[in-house]
Amino acid sequence: MLLRRALSGLAVVLGVLTLMFFLLRLAPGDPARLLVGPAATEEQVEAQRRALGLDRPVATQYAAWLGRFAQGDWGTSLATGRPVREMLGGAWPATVRLVGLSLVLSYLLGIAVGAIQAMHGGRLDTLLSVVSVTLFALPGYWLGLMLVMLFTYRARVLPAFGAAGLDADFLTGWERVADRLRHLALPLATLTLIGAGGTARYVRGAMLDVVGAPFVAIARAKGITPMRVALRHVFRNALIPVLTLLGLSLPALFSGAVFIEAIFAWPGVGRILVSAVQARDYPVVMAATAVSAVLVVLGNLLAEALTAWADPRLRESER
Amino acid sequence: MRDGRAAFGAVVLALAVAAALFAPLVAGDPLVQRDIVATRFLPPLSADLHGEFHPLGTDRFGRDVWARLVFGARISLGVGALAVLVSVAVGVLVGAIAGYWRGWAGVLLLGLTDFSLALPRVVLLLLLASLWQPSAGLVVVVLGLTGWMTIARLVHGEVRTLAARPFVEGAIGLGAGGRRVLARHILPNALTPVTVAAALGLGNAIMLEAGLSFLGLGVQPPTPSWGNLIASGRDTLVNAPWVAAAPGVALVLVVVAATLLGDAIRDRMDPGQRGGGGGAAGQ
A202 at the B interface (CB within 8 A)? Predict the structure, then answer.
């Protein structure tokens, strides 16, 4: 099963590269000129044209592009002149750290809130529904700005930019860890809050679907305590659709991270992508898109494995 | 609570649409600026030296925030609605074809759907927005072309179940052609989930339009859109927080309204599926 998933993941990455190849040709202007930028000399344009093989048939060009990309030859940034591979190689761990942590935290928070809503009902349910739908509707970049206003400008307790202070190199031991955590706090809180809203809504629905099932009524009739019914009978069965959601919410969370990274100057792939798009730095845009696709595909594989591990029925049927 | 949600959603959306449609009646000119030094950064609920009242204050050029918000609603709501229309059209078409005529076309279309669903939408949006000159029209096309997948999946599922139902088989038995069966018998019955998805998608599209405009890749100033209003308030967060806060609050209200309306419609049509759902569609 995992092998099949890995193959389909590979197909997605290949698809992204193909899409980029053809989009570059659909866009107005000469692709070679786009890739080398407005300041390039005629010789550079000519060299790029040879590299893309624009005089050769499209199929050959496509194969050459794929080959170059697969070998890690992603060109140089038009804006900074640095090799694109080096820029992104330094950036992806920061993105994985931010997205991974907020995925875990937003799931814990969302599951807790959704479960309380489903089991408690009544006014508390209504109140928490209002909270979760509001969180769900909050644009990350706006929530981020508001948090910056409150915690950085008003209360002056948390930094708003970057992943570490300017003096990070001179800090030692715990001070360094504390500095990192303080910089992580606002971007992580923003991304977690907006993710938790959607998760809570979903968990509440999944648990309510299970609460009505006959086996829950039987468990209650047997005199099992409500807490135990909630945990052992309802939650366990509601967990399966929730874990399936994990794979679906990863692209959404990654999308959110793009804005958050841009707002908080978090040194990840999303920030590089946004500034490259604003500067029309095509080699970087292309490579950052590909790296995003790879990260999301890998994350989905992980989610699949986790779901299979949690639901024995799935393992049996897929074998 | 169920009716409360629908009523809240409908009222907020109706108010927003009305404000957008009658913008010149409920607010002054969003571009007017006179005596910048004397009229800029006025806090909400204050009047300037010309005696003009500013319910939401003024920005750094002395422009009325309320007027900018109301005129921005035209762009934000209009772009969102048009983008959802494009998504629905593409999604219904792809889902119907893939669901009704299985075979290589169906497999190809489903593969395309799953492929697009696996990508972060914002990354696709940025990629597309980087290749062409930013404008409101481009945002509609780009949002429409990245938002059709959930609708295609829903329609595909509905069409497949409906195609096996007796009334459809009856229509085929009476000699109705494939296209007629699809258009007259199957699709009208598959529209409920599409309506729900469209309502949820509207909130999403409005949010993403604002996001693109916020990054400077969508609607360009001086044309006000909620996204570029938030962006313009970003630099004055310290001394005039209301400039960024007002469009954000409006945005959240409208997205909440669209989401609640979608939830309420779904619950009314399909009591079996209560609450929840739609969590993965975010951003």
Answer: yes
What SS3 class is residue A83?
Answer: strand
pLDDT at A53: 67
Chain B: give the shortest CA distance to residue A33, in Å: 13
CA distance A316 to chain B (A): 24
Instruction: List the domain boundaries for chain A.
Output: 92-267
CB contact under 8 A, B131 and A27: yes
pLDDT of B37-60, one tens digit each? 777 777 777 777 777 777 777 777
Q: Which fold has domain A92-267?
A: MetI-like fold (1.10.3720)
What are residue B44's phi and psi, to 5 degrees?
Answer: -55, 155
Q: Terminus-to-terminus CA distance in chain B, angstroms?
A: 26
Structure tokens at B57: 């204050």
What chain A residue is nearest to B217 in terms of C-alpha separation? A278
> ω into residue A28 within 30 of 0, thus cis?
no
> Cβ contacts (< 8 Å) between B274 and chain A: which residues?
205, 208-209
N-terminal to C-terminal alpha carbon distance within chain A: 7
Express each pLDDT in B92-117 by its tens digit.
999 888 888 878 888 888 888 888 87
Identify which of A76, A72, A89 has the alpha carbon closest to the alpha carbon of residue A37: A76
Give me the mean pLDDT over the A209-235 stretch: 84
- A296 to B120: CB separation less than 8 angstroms, yes or no: yes
pLDDT digits (tens, 9 = 90+) for B148-200: 888 888 888 888 888 878 888 888 888 777 788 887 778 887 787 888 888 88
* pLDDT at residue B281, rounded to an integer: 34
Looking at per-residue pLDDT, the higher value among B86 and B160 belongs to B86
pLDDT (tens digit per residue) in A20-31: 778 777 777 676
What pairs with residue B54 in β-bridges? B46
A30-84 pLDDT per residue, tens: 767 777 777 778 888 777 777 666 677 777 878 877 887 888 778 777 777 788 8
- Judge: A148–B237 Cβ closer than 8 Å, yes or no: yes
Do the Cβ atoms of A253 and A103 come closer than 8 Å?
A: yes
Task: Tell me how crowded residue B42 is: count the other CB atoms within 10 A of its CB.
Answer: 23
Rounded (10°) angle between helices A269-278 and A236-264: 50
For chain B, the helix, strand and coil percentages under 3-state DSSP, each to the nearest 5? 70, 0, 25
- Stretch 283-312 of chain A: residues touching chain B, C-beta under 8 Å: 285, 288-289, 292-293, 296-297, 300
Closest CA to B24 of B58, B71, B57: B71
Indicate the domain borders of chain B. 4-21+59-282
> What pTM does this model have?
0.81
Q: How many CB atoms lie within 10 A of CB B157?
A: 14
Torsion of CA B159, B106, B148, B155, to 10 degrees: 10
DSSP 8-state assignment for residue A194: H
Pick the CATH number of B4-21+59-282 from 2.60.120.10, 3.20.20.80, 1.10.3720.10, 2.30.110.10: 1.10.3720.10
- Supply A304's token pair: 């699949």
Indicate the average pLDDT of chain A.
81
Among chain B residues, CA nearest to A281: B130
